[in-house]
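Class prep. Write one:
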Amino acid sequence: MSVDDHFLERFFTPRSVAVVGATNNPFKINYCLVQNLVSLNYQGKIYPVNYREKEIGGITAFRRLTDIPGDIDLVVISVPAEKTMDILKECDTLGVKNMVIVTGGFSEGGDQGKKLHRELASFIRKKGIRVLGPNTLGPINTSNHFSISFNPISKMRRGGISFAFQSGFYEPKINWLFSHLGLNKLIDLGNKMDVSEVDALEYLLQDPDTKVIAM
């Protein structure tokens, strides 16, 4: 298997990304999810999704995923846990098979969260959907300036180091990392509903731009 054939390649090199839960409010934690993509000059298409906003980060916003006119390679979901299944069902209707669930409150969120986790896991297995997370940030790919982060990223310094672990380890220090290290890719595994360390290691071992893997 080449890196192009690995399913995680579609998470790192999407031609288009929809961000559900995008916002213009700089005081909300979701603010940077779209702003970083814009400011870092991500090369793909960006579709912010927010039922109240007409424009986010200077880009046309959409009320629902089903309103987006173009193809969607990757969906980033950052809405309350109890609304996540509705978004998954929209993705299934559209035939979108790759998504990042930023939202927390699932397997780490008590009995109700664990119940939601099981329901989502059953749904994605049945539908053949691949999910990074939940309770995750990322992925980050310096080669195409793709970054899903809650912190504003001022610049990206490209190199050969790739990380695979929880974003709690790197997210508070993200700009320090880019200032001091040459980074290639970062993947936060979150609660590992679907994507695991084995998947990440298998992918990064095949990635020609990865020279060092940190896990």
